[in-house]
Amino acid sequence: MSKHLADGIANLIKHNITTGLELEEYVCEGKINGALKDDDEPHEFVPFCEWPYMFKGWGEDGVPGNNDTVVFEDGAYAACTQTNGESYASAYLVKRLVYIILNVITIVWCCRYLVHFRTKRMASKNKNVTTSETLCKMNLTICVAHLLISLDPDSTGFFPVLFLSMLQGYNGAAMISLAFLLVNSWVTIIDGGKSKKTPPWMDKLTKFSVPCAIFCEVVLAIVEIQVTPAGTGSYDGTVNAVKGFA
Question: Fewer Cβ atoms within 10 Å of its own Cβ: the N or the C terminal residue of the chain?
Answer without folding.
Answer: N
